[in-house]
């Protein structure tokens, strides 16, 4: 069981440590975890970003399962790179799991970042663009892709004290993956 | 040539009109454009968001090509739903094109929204998370996926006066798609 560990964890100051913790947890459930940072990349090379892409793509192709950390990142939604990878794995028909450490609805999170206007239940942001209001925690494409390609998004009842270091919901995904 | 028209255009106040303009442009290039909003969905139903997902997924499966509007949306990156769809189409090995009407680099855009600390060239945001700094306009996974699965991201030299209504870069994608 090869699991691709997608998430903005690679941007954390202790990214390598988080990667090791996730891989160790995978091992405990009989799985092999692949953490994107473990690819060999020459960060000084002029094509470093392309090397990272190719490394991640090769890792994804080797994996049967993705567990995506969809905790909101620099805005109301999940990290774009992680969302791309979730879509890529779903497109390949692979088993998809995801978690977010922020249980707030997309509407509530957007409201924190921007003024929202309510016109008979139709919500818009300050630019006049519709705010998806289905009570989901993020964009419906990701949320329902998880329902269909694996298991519904895992969210804690309350956000953990440390949104980026807490792996409780990650482990819940792992348990689900191991039970398949 | 069936083209899936991915983008946060569906959230615009004149979404239906933008969709019609995109579909009409497709026709001019001999292609059939599929705009997500054209799916029949009962918005009053309790499973409306799931109906939208299934409609979009069926549309994507019918299309050979995606043109994704990756103009930044509520933060420094593209709309999560659009990014998921781009990944999904790439995962299916389909031809991928994308454009962004904001030519700024990801670093410059992030700097506008958050303080950035530079420690010997390693950039971090106010939460201490690394800011990707490869001179790209958005997360490397999307940018290089376009290189590999279709054609490099199209960006205007300067942002158009109206970031959401200008279809110049969309049409440039369409020309590329038609030339394949």
Question: What is this structure, in a nutshell?
Answer:
The first copy, chain A, has six helices and six strands, in the order βαβαβαβαββαα.
Spatial strand sequence of the major β-sheet of chain A: 2-1-3-4
Number of discrete domains of chain A:
2
Average pLDDT across residues of chain A?
97
CATH fold topology of the largest domain in chain A: Rossmann fold
The H-and-E topology of chain A, N to C, reads as EHEHEHEHEEHH
**What is the structural class of chain A?**
alpha/beta
Amount of helix of chain A: 25-40%
Q: What is the oligomeric state here? A: homodimer
In words, what does this structure look like?
The structure is a homodimer of 180-residue chains. Chain A is α/β, with parallel strands linked by helices. Chain A has 2 domains: 143 residues, Rossmann fold (3-Layer(aba) Sandwich), CATH 3.40.50; 32 residues, no CATH class. Chain A has a 4-stranded parallel beta sheet, sandwiched between helices. In chain A, helix 3 packs parallel to helix 5. At the A-B interface, helix 2, helix 3 and helix 5 of A face helix 2, helix 3 and helix 5 of B.
């Amino acid at each position: 069981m090869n699991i691709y560990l997608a998430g903005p964890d690679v941007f954390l100051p202790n990214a390598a440590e988080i990667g090791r913790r996730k891989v160790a947890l995978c091992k405990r459930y009989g799985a092999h975890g692949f953490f994107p940072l473990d690819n060999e990349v020459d960060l000084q090379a002029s094509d470093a970003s392309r090397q990272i892409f190719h490394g991640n793509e090769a890792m994804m192709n080797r994996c049967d399962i993705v567990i995506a950390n969809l905790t909101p990142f620099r805005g109301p939604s999940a990290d774009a790179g992680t969302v791309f990878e979730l879509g890529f794995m779903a497109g390949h028909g692979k088993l998809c799991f995801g978690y977010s450490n922020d249980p707030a609805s997309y509407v509530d999170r957007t409201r924190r970042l921007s003024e929202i206007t309510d016109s008979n239940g139709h919500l818009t942001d300050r630019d006049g663009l519709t705010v998806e209001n289905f009570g989901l925690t993020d964009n419906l494409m990701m949320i329902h892709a998880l329902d269909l390609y694996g298991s519904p998004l895992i969210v804690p009842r309350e956000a953990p004290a440390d949104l980026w270091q807490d792996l409780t919901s990650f482990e819940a995904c792992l348990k689900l993956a191991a039970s398949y």
